[in-house]
Amino acid sequence: MDKENLKKNMLLGMGNPLLDISAVVDKSFLTKYGMKENDAILADEKHKNLYTELVEKYNADFIAGGSVQNALRVAQWLLEFPKVTTFFGCVGDDKYSKILCDKARENGVNVQYQVNSKEPTGTCAVLITGTHRSLCANLAAANLFTIDHIAKEENKKLVDTAHFYYVSGFFLTVSPPSIMEVAKVALAHKRPFLMNLSAQFIVQFFKDPLMQVMPYVDVLFGNETEAETFATEQSFGTTDLKEIALKICELPKQYEDRPRLCIITNGHKPVIMAHEGKIREFPVTVLEKDKIVDTNSAGDAFAGGFLSQYIQGQDLEICIKCGIWAATEILQRSGCTFSGKASFTP
Ligand code: 26A
């Protein structure tokens, strides 16, 4: 791979740094906590005991998580060159933040956390049933991220000098002003701003801030359920994923000279890409069921793989193929974990 275009801190990501507490459970455990397979939700009162129960009764694993941080770690794995990516998010001052920070730095991410000791570092329960995963995030300190962090001189510089920006829809639950600020910097410099829909509840209950940022979004990622829910919420009048992707591209856009790209992953079915009024489909590697460890972070890995090529100016086809490659790797591991050298060849 030709890496001569890579620069330090060229990709800036913002999101919720979370430590995943992952365990295999049975469906009755999901029911007990009012959760569904393949969902992602925010914890409330009824999930208070979920985390201790997972650790004490289910022998849970602790794995570095947080959607954007996962994507950046995967991108770094593919890029090899350290600190191409920078990450902003808020953590507590505790041992979990140290685990998260060490892991992300070991993978080459330039981690610049805001630290707030009023809350512990956020966690995410990952409940595995068969090949499905259900996520329940207790954001804690992650929820305390403020725009002040971006305004700090050294961080402002990182925002101003990045060439690409990636945020999750999840981060709309925390700091829409920070997202808008970064989106506006991206626009002012005509640099690509990429976003992920992240979860159905974002599309449903954070519709207003989502649609406020949409005109700034150059590349939108989502999976099939998020896309379908988006279409319902926006009264698109179709459930066809290709039509939905095309309609997303046509939503109002600030910088019209760069047509929006919309990428919808669809489980084992081909990835759908809409761009400039056209659809392309990319088959995925269909793994045998017994090869899939869990689907936790597969979507993040897809985004990370895509980003690793996109920031090098690769053709979209290569970007998508790398996304598929990375997702296939992560499906065969527990959570967002990997080791050794990434073996993707364009
Ligand atoms: C605001 N919410 C709900 C979240 C998340 C989240 N990351 C940020 N914000 N809920 C789950 N995750 C992360 O998603 C990854 C899998 O895609 C989990 O930490 C997990 O690593």
UniProtKB/TrEMBL annotation:
Gene Ontology annotations of biological process type: adenosine salvage; AMP salvage; purine nucleobase metabolic process
Pfam family, one: PfkB
Pathway: Purine metabolism; AMP biosynthesis via salvage pathway; AMP from adenosine: step 1/1
Keywords, sorted A to Z: ATP-binding, Kinase, Magnesium, Nucleotide-binding, Nucleus, Purine salvage, Transferase
InterPro entries attached to this UniProt entry: Adenokinase, Carboh/pur_kinase_PfkB_CS, PfkB_dom, Ribokinase-like
Extent of the signal sequence: none
Known EC number: 2.7.1.20
Catalysed reactions, as listed in the record: adenosine + ATP = AMP + ADP + H(+)
Subcellular location: Nucleus
Residues in Carbohydrate kinase PfkB domain copies: 29-339
GO MF terms, alphabetically ordered: adenosine kinase activity; ATP binding
Recorded coiled-coil stretches: none
Enzyme class, first EC level, given as a word: transferase
Domain of life, source organism: Eukaryota
Cofactors demanded by this protein: Mg(2+)
Protein family (similarity comment): Belongs to the carbohydrate kinase PfkB family.
Described function: ATP dependent phosphorylation of adenosine and other related nucleoside analogs to monophosphate derivatives.
Subunit structure: Monomer.
PANTHER family the UniProt entry points to: ADENOSINE KINASE
Name of the featured protein: Adenosine kinase
Protein species of origin: Brassicogethes aeneus (Rape pollen beetle)
